[in-house]
Amino acid sequence: MSHPHTTEAVSYPEPLGHPETRGIELIDSSQRRGRARDLFPVWAAPNVSVLNFTVGASMILLGLELWQAFLVIIAGSLPWIFTGIIAISGPAAGTSGSVITRAIYGIRGNRVIVAFFGWFISAVFLALNWLASSFMGAELVAQLGYADPVAGPVLVTIVVAAITVLVAVFGHGLILRSYPYVAVVLLGIFLLVTAFILPHVNWNYAAAEPLEGAALWSAVSIGFAILASTPLSYSNSPDMARYLPESTKPSRIIAATALGGALPCALFTTVGALLATGIDSAAMDPGIESALLALLPAWLGPVFVIGVIINTISLNGMTTYTASMAFQSIGVPIRRIPSAVVVGAIGTGLTIYLVMSTSLLEAVNLMLQLLVLVSGPTMAIFATDVIRRRNRYDGSELFNEKPGSPFWYSGGWHIPGLLAVVLGAGVASLFLTNGWWTGPIAGAMGGIDLSVPVSMLVTAAVYVALTGIAAKAHGTRVLEGVRA
């Protein structure tokens, strides 16, 4: 039957003092507001992150020279263009990305993909970012006299998670209004921290045993996979852009989204690489957060920890907000606000588990690489579909769930989309290298990790080929559900 949310009217922007009641409902053109450039701080605030320091340090721990690490960081920033490309589908369709992907997977197939792939990505990133603030917040709590190594991080996690859910509950209006100020505050704090890091940098750093041949390319490819996993995971970018007028220039949306995320990521990942040259690797065993705090003056340490917590709230607030709409899109009969609470509870549970079982550095590297098997194919197919359709999506048809509707396909399943994602992930696993799994092809190549390019190229190629075959079989090349 037709989706009930399409007829509900909610004014925009909602008063800042009230929660956003809109979920995945179609946004009428009369309710569209804003400019593309408003998206820049929305993406900058979540990405002025301590995880950038952690990932940057990982580049050096992999054995790379500084100049090699810098090149990998630049290359790892390029996938942000895909985050920008899929963002333009939000204003075109006027709804959430988790609804737009019905055009790719079919009405029923989309529920499976969003429930598994979307929730996995959201849960992992909620946990990773809460984990960072938990470890560092525990350091601050310990300075205040509460030094329990388990209860401290758990307590910080619960408090930060509660505030995060509140941000998600108040939603798009709060995010759009507050994130520009958050971005400025975080940029100031992180630049101040950088100023105290730079005197400790070993500008003449050279790896003890310079990498060559397969070992070098293995380190480069693993570093790229870790870096690329962040922009490739942001399949929620249409959600943040969907309130923009449909007439907004796509190029401006792409630029604001991609640059908003890429610039702070690249800058502070570079700082993380520089930081690792001045710290003994053994000092980072407990976690880079402890080594970093040891370099800062007593007054700046608490300020930095507060900045980390604010960043975590901004990033996970956005993630929880969009994940709550994903819950609705799979057909769960729940409103967006209680859905946000459920998402927050799941992420909190996973974070507490990680707090008691691993270090931040281990968790970040392992999960980001595994995430590529999910985020690479789903991002590639989304971007491919936007390009293939020339960003023409009929929002009202996306909510038509009746058999025979444009996105019903074969019994509610779009085989080309589903098969492309599964094949992309499966083939990519053969090229993946990390501490938990080394694919047979990656092993045969000396540990070179090509999971990111392989996952994206295979997925896009299979999708284009199969949709072309399906179109010829039906004697037409007209795309389903495209607005004339």
What does this structure look like?
The protein has 484 residues and is mainly α. It has one domain (30-473): Hydantoin permease. Helices cover 67% and strands 0% of the residues. The radius of gyration is 22 Å and the shape is globular. Residues 1-13 have low confidence and may be disordered.
Q: Which terms would index this structure?
A:
484 residues; mainly alpha; Hydantoin permease; disordered N terminus
Furnish the topology, listing elements before pairings:
Layout: H1 39-47, H2 50-61, H3 66-77, H4 80-87, H5 89-93, H6 97-100, H7 102-105, H8 107-143, H9 151-197, H10 213-233, H11 237-241, H12 250-277, H13 288-295, H14 300-329, H15 336-355, H16 360-388, H17 395-398, H18 415-429, H19 440-444, H20 451-473
Helix pairs in contact: 1-9, 1-12, 2-12, 2-16, 3-10, 3-12, 4-10, 4-12, 4-16, 8-9, 8-14, 8-15, 8-16, 9-12, 9-14, 9-15, 10-16, 14-15, 16-18, 16-20, 18-20
The count of DSSP E runs of length 2 or more, i.e. the number of strands, is: 0
What fraction of the residues are assigned to beta strands by DSSP?
A: under 5%
At CATH's second level, what is the architecture? Orthogonal Bundle
Overall tally of domains: 1
Helical element count? 20
Poorly predicted tracts of residues: 1-13
Structural class: mainly alpha
Largest β sheet strand count, sense and barrel closure? none
**Gap from first CA to last CA:** 24 Å
Provide the gyration radius in Å. 22 Å
Task: Provide the CATH top-level class.
Answer: Mainly Alpha
